[in-house]
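B., you asked whether I could sanity-check this one before it goes into the benchmark set. Here's the sequence:
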Amino acid sequence: MKSMLKMSKRKLKTADIKSVNTTPSIHDFSEAEKNQFRSLLLKWYDEKKRDLPWRKQALNPDINQRAYAVWVSEVMLQQTQVATVINYYNKWMGKWPKLQDLAKANLEEVNELWSGLGYYSRGRRLHEGTKKVVEELGGEMPKTAEDLQKLLPGVGRYTAGAIASIAYNQVTGLVDGNVIRVLCRMRIMGGDSTGQAVQDKLWSHANSVVDPERPGDFNQGMMELGATICTPKSPSCDSCPVKEICLAYSKVEQEKQKSAMKILTNNNNSITDIECLADTCPLCFQQEDMWEPSNGVENYPRKGKKKAPREERTDVCIVCRRRQESKDEYLIVQRPNKGLLAGMWEFPSLLQVEEAQNPTDIILDKSCGASLQTTGKSQHIGEVVHIFSHIHQTYVIQAITIEEGEVTLNTEQPPSRWVSKEDFLECAVSTGMKKVFKAFESPLSPKSSNTKNKKTANKPDDKQRSISCFFKPKVSS
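And here's what the prediction gave me:
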């Protein structure tokens, strides 16, 4: 008998991820729990769901427009909070209410409306996708999650599942950040949530627990639960509709009971721990991790160490052209149509390859083929830091003021143009470039300078004075 137990332990230790995932364990839902999960969640969602604009659009009787409305919302909601998305979504659907409308737009219009929302490739791919639907698919959206993912650029497994379940009522699950948090807590999965083992289990759960009658509402309910109740910090467990089948919540309650009983009876063994019985399990906390009682359900999920963003320094030159009869203008250049911030506009910029800064004439020549016919010196404005998902970008800002005719543009270089301040703020420029312009304006604005002086004049000096200020200075004869 002992030899058989040893053999079974060896099998568990050497089992691959697939066999662990398919073996029933504490990390799985029973059929009764699945049914209970569906019933409780949908009841709560019907009563508590937020009134969001894309949920109204998803009721459109035209199946293609319904799918388009869901598609836009899901793309915007990737990496972006709901409160931020609402305004962008309403503007977008007001300008391009049908996918055919978006397909007719140009990339610059898309970038202009997307400006400030971040992750600009999302808008570009959405635009490319609608063009493909119109030009290659006869205006018909793909009708399954599999085809959506296969045929539309930028549509991954999650977005395909969202469109298919919400717009087409296809019985398919989805996994996003909110769903990861809900499921990891419900089934106490403490392994790296970005790792293959946990991801496989999450998708398996998402597809098995989804309600067969109301898949779209169930999936939205899971995301709603994660966004409003099962939040990353300070979750409202007492208000959670599915807390009775949440193992993380049960574990927290057991810890409380154990602590109380230890105080009363000094007996540690009266309550059985909720734990996985496998010797090794990729879904459980790994050796370097451990349950921290003070964190409660926030122990889940765990993420692997994120790769640090690479450091970059970029020289930016703001060229201000004085106009005698109109407002000052600024030179901007369009970025390439592929890569980071594709098709966006920016001030002439050049990546620093060495420690030394690039002089103004080199920045202008290499970024847009411009040449200066002036001896005016550039002014160092300062530095602005902007964080992309994978880049820690530092913009080193220079500025130069010229008169008309003192700069020549090369028409064979990337598109460039002169814009007023108002035009600059309205065109397709990134948040990083808006930060750069704000830094440029700050030291030069008379208004900000006067305001500062006014505040200084009216505000008493609250700094502690040194003792020397109480003595009259000695006047030399």
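One thing to flag: The first strand starts at residue 310 and ends at 322. Otherwise nothing jumped out at me.
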